[in-house]
């Protein structure tokens, strides 16, 4: 500690919100270099190397071979698959001195596909599984929570190559098992959820989400074992209902541009015949957003959903990708005078209607159901407007928020919601990339077949962040032993030179046995400061060589439980080694 | 080998010139992804990891601490030191989605300096030594020889921080020793030469050059131990000589725009009084180049040197850096009508002359010496033009080529020339960066002093390339044991299943003893192809399990010497392990 490049901080960094992020900065593991771009300090490097080691070990265990593709890549392969454009603003693009287009790799499907195409030609060469671990780049709009969502980050990406879908399934299952082993070893709570395969194309895909209330992802679970990222949930279309409403009628509803004001006005001025109160669930809310396509064009989209639900931005983004979602603003309303803001209804929406805006309905809107919705005139709503009788839309969209208590997609369970952080993602890509780039091999019959691929990612730097979020207390970080920056943190809590001599000896003996130590040998720092630093840094075992020495004992403290015990100084090394090996 | 991601090539790759580069591609260690940008295949990753391991071990041995700064960096610190501009076209620059300027780090002096500034404040915190190993980026005009000069490459860069120059010298000496250990372990011939500190600023600096006839660097040595990169050689100014020439006189020398034609014409039409022949050494050649400054401006420069020498482009570039050297072309001559191409003389050159072009003389041009040189008129030269009497220049420049047999700078030795590849560079940067970025600490007297820095680099991926250039033969690569992709390459040279069973057993036992193996278990590949592949891949020990098995023996071959011996199959594992441990 007297020479370690480290200065612990007593104050939280201004730009950090999550506890783990604050502690990683305060304890000197990482430092911010630019928004979303971090430097790894010596303690951080130790943890990172251990996480990389675990990932590498588990990849090699399933026979995946390590390679390393460049981070700086030529444009052409990404043009061939469309990702040069589809990635939009998330892709870092640059030009070299000869004006050639380059990019910083976000993932490497294209490059792996081309390398295999170049080297392999027969079904006998397959199956093949390759992985790499290196810096990836994404120009995130909102870099977040330090290393949880950075713009430069280390990812382990892997790819499998098989001649048919049976082979792909086997590779996928192998990676799934390997990921379970990796995340079990890393030491945080996670769930495996069905995932949307998004911009990657392909079919089956699952995510490993760290369960964390500060996570950006929301997932659902039911009591029968179903679990899915909300982006991947397909809410079934509500079954048609018998029409019971009378004919639709427009009513004056002045000053009711929101669902809340509308419901209040309905209950005050338009009581129902059966005496029930109106609620937001009786209203049909029509939300308009602007889609920004990767080619630069913009196009509005209208979404009709029950008034008691909001549009879930991530579910919507998933549905419209690679387009990005922007707000439909004042100037946009000016371009569509038929839209009465706050009173928009199906009368103006739809490709065949006056606005010509594509109009999609939430699947909860059953055919035959009656709604209160905008009458496309300021201060007016239409009541008893029946879906299928009085209006139709251009299709449906999975964009409404899901709620605690909603039915599972199979109709047999009840959903609960929780939040998570994506730590791993396994995809059955299928032939999308192989087709775009012409990766074919000869099969047993001598016929050319397109290779089928899987793609498998682990956020390596992110894993360090998640472990920190999941393993801390008021005093600091509490590392799981397998990835701690050291096994033991030895504090000399005395000014007596005998304590230093004894501690030197203990450190030497431990290192000789292969036990990694952090040794707080700072001569002029008070024991209190040293204890605080040890708790902050979070090595699992803390050893105190101090006043107990007079009685022939030193103290061993378990960082996680706080349990302390004194051991005779003569057995100290053995006792510590035993503690470390547990 | 039946599953390894590898296809050896019988043909040399079209874009490779050097033997090591050809073999690294043919043997499946690396693959070109774009000009100057390479992919590392599984065999290459093994070698790379071992080289990285050696470098890390030797850095940690001298107490340097590993960190990792981002590769994607903000512009501001590089503006503060001027390198954003000075790096010119060699720097990869890009913009993020918010239009902020970013760069891909070529080296990280600025970032390290700022981190230390932020964390340290006292002389008690020093000395400090930090290193990192990661991708660096330079947009080379001429990427070359595969991984020897790439645009994305792995470099180990390290920085030392001291309170005074005594501390810096100690740090520098420590790195020097560590580098000697690293390069001795890597297994190629190298020399330590005085170096120019170039764009990095600072004072003392040495390079570790791999001795290689295909190298881009030229260095000189003398018989007394002096060694320097030609860029760093300072040729002493020739002592003044007594003027013996008569007065200068212009002569008609039609059609003599080159030194050769001029010398011939002089000998034919203007014989010397003393009967000696004219040679190129009697003529003063004036070369004009165009300097391209980082700020985009262009400026001509004239260099006067003995006609029997050429301007050395690298020595010139070093002198004019950060400006780049371009040709002075036809359109440039048009802008300077006073320059008679092929007959340019000191009469038109110099800041006070008609051209106003800055004119610098080679230090071999002694005051008092007489020359034949251009008379600034087509077809005319001036004879007996005496330096100091008839013309002067604006200064001197170290730009002429050095020659075998030239005097050493100290005048006591004779130079020999050789070529090399820069593998390591150690610099005493001094306070240049610390001053630009305000890195100061309080000294023992409580006074703020600027920290003095050293900077130390090793080309890690380049080292793999150099070892390959230095260790190969007609049949393929010949790896030094410490960085070979495996210890033993086991070939089954038989279709007999007993041979496979025995080889499986040998491989299993070797692996259990920690011996790394490549196992050629391909069932349908002929022994000849397997032998060829083994020689090409270049693992130091090759074991053949084949027809000898009938007589109870297997063959052990030393890849480098070609020496073969048969050992009883029962002792094979012991014998191989002994061979590997040598």
From TrEMBL, chains A, B:
Domain named Aminoacyl-transfer RNA synthetases class-II family profile is located at 31-480
Q: Which InterPro entries match?
A: aa-tRNA-synt_IIb, aa-tRNA-synth_II, aa-tRNA-synth_II/BPL/LPL, Anticodon-bd, Anticodon-bd_dom_sf, Pro-tRNA-ligase_IIa, Pro-tRNA-synth_IIa_bac-type, Pro-tRNA-Synthase_IIa_type1
| Catalytic activity annotation | tRNA(Pro) + L-proline + ATP = L-prolyl-tRNA(Pro) + AMP + diphosphate
Which SUPFAM superfamilies did the record assign? Class II aaRS ABD-related, Class II aaRS and biotin synthetases, YbaK/ProRS associated domain
Q: Which domain of life is it from?
A: Bacteria
Question: What Enzyme Commission number(s) apply to this enzyme?
Answer: 6.1.1.15
Q: Which CDD domains match?
A: ProRS_anticodon_short, ProRS_core_prok
Q: Which GO CC terms are listed, alphabetically?
A: cytosol
Pfam families linked to this entry: HGTP_anticodon (PF03129), tRNA-synt_2b (PF00587), tRNA_edit (PF04073)
**What EC class does the entry list?**
ligase
- Where do the TM regions start and end? none
Q: Any idea which GO molecular function terms this record carries?
A: aminoacyl-tRNA deacylase activity; ATP binding; proline-tRNA ligase activity
Tell whether Oxidoreductase is among the UniProt keywords.
no
Q: Where in the cell is it found?
A: Cytoplasm
Chief site of localization: cytoplasm
Q: Which GO terms describe its biological process?
A: prolyl-tRNA aminoacylation
Keywords of the record, alphabetical order, are: Aminoacyl-tRNA synthetase, ATP-binding, Cytoplasm, Ligase, Nucleotide-binding, Protein biosynthesis
Report the protein's function.
Catalyzes the attachment of proline to tRNA(Pro) in a two-step reaction: proline is first activated by ATP to form Pro-AMP and then transferred to the acceptor end of tRNA(Pro). As ProRS can inadvertently accommodate and process non-cognate amino acids such as alanine and cysteine, to avoid such errors it has two additional distinct editing activities against alanine. One activity is designated as 'pretransfer' editing and involves the tRNA(Pro)-independent hydrolysis of activated Ala-AMP.
Family, as annotated = Belongs to the class-II aminoacyl-tRNA synthetase family. ProS type 1 subfamily.
Q: How does it assemble?
A: Homodimer.
About its domains, the entry says: Consists of three domains: the N-terminal catalytic domain, the editing domain and the C-terminal anticodon-binding domain.
- HAMAP family in the cross-refs: Pro_tRNA_synth_type1
Q: Under which name does UniProt file this protein?
A: Proline--tRNA ligase
- The protein's organism comes out as Leekyejoonella antrihumi
């Amino acid at each position: 500690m007297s020479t370690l490049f480290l200065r612990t901080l007593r104050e939280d960094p201004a730009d950090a919100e999550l506890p783990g992020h604050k502690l990683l900065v305060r304890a000197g593991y990482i430092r911010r270099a630019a928004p979303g771009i971090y430097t790894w300090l010596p303690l951080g490097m130790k943890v990172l190397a251990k996480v990389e080691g675990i990932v590498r070990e588990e990849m090699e265990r399933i026979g995946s071979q390590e390679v390393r593709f460049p981070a700086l890549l030529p444009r052409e392969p990404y043009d061939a698959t469309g990702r040069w454009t589809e990635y939009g603003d998330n892709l870092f693009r640059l030009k070299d001195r000869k004006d050639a287009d380059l990019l910083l790799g976000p993932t490497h499907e294209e490059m792996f596909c081309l390398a295999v195409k170049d080297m392999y030609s027969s079904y006998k060469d397959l199956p093949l599984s390759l992985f790499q671990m290196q810096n990836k780049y994404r120009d995130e709009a909102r870099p977040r929570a330090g290393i949880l969502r950075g713009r430069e980050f280390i990812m382990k990406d892997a790819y499998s190559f098989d001649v048919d879908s049976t082979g792909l399934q086997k590779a996928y299952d192998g990676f799934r098992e390997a990921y379970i082993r990796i995340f079990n070893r890393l030491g945080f709570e996670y769930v495996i959820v069905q995932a949307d395969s998004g911009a990657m194309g392909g079919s089956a895909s699952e995510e490993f989400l760290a369960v964390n209330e500060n996570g950006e992802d929301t997932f659902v679970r039911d009591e029968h074992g179903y679990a899915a990222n909300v982006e991947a949930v397909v809410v079934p279309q509500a079954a048609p209902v018998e029409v019971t409403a009378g004919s639709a009628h427009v009513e004056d509803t002045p000053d009711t541009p929101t669902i809340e004001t509308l419901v209040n006005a309905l209950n005050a001025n338009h009581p129902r015949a059966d005496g029930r109160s109106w609620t937001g669930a009786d209203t049909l809310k029509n939300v308009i957003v602007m889609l920004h396509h990767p080619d630069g064009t913009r196009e509005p989209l209208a979404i009709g959903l029950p008034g008691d639900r909001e549009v879930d931005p991530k579910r919507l983004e998933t549905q419209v990708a690679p387009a990005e979602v922007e707000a439909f603003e004042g100037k946009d309303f000016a371009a569509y005078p038929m839209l009465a803001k706050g009173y928009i209804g199906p009368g103006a929406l739809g490709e065949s209607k006056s606005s010509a805006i594509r109009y999609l309905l939430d699947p909860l809107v059953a055919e035959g159901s009656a709604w209160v919705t905008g009458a496309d005139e300021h201060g007016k709503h239409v009541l008893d407007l029946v879906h299928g009788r009085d209006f139709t839309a251009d299709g449906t969209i999975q964009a409404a928020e899901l709620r605690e208590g909603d039915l599972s997609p199979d109709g047999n369970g009840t959903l609960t919601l929780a939040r998570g952080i994506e730590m791993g993602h396994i995809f059955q890509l299928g032939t999308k990339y192989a087709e775009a780039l012409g990766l074919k091999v000869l099969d047993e019959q001598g016929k050319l077949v397109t290779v089928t691929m899987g793609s498998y990612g682990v956020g390596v730097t992110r894993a360090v962040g998640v472990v920190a979020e999941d393993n801390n207390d008021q005093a600091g970080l509490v590392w799981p032993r397998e990835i701690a920056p050291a096994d033991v943190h030895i504090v000399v809590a005395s000014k007596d030179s005998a304590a230093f001599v004894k501690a030197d000896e203990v450190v030497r003996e431990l290192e000789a046995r292969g036990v990694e130590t952090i040794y707080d040998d700072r001569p002029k720092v008070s024991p209190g400061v040293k204890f605080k630093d040890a708790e902050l840094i979070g090595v699992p075992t803390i050893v105190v060589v101090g006043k107990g020495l007079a009685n022939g004992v030193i103290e061993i403290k378990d960082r996680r439980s706080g349990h302390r015990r004194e051991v005779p100084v003569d057995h100290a090394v053995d006792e510590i080694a035993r503690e470390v090996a547990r």
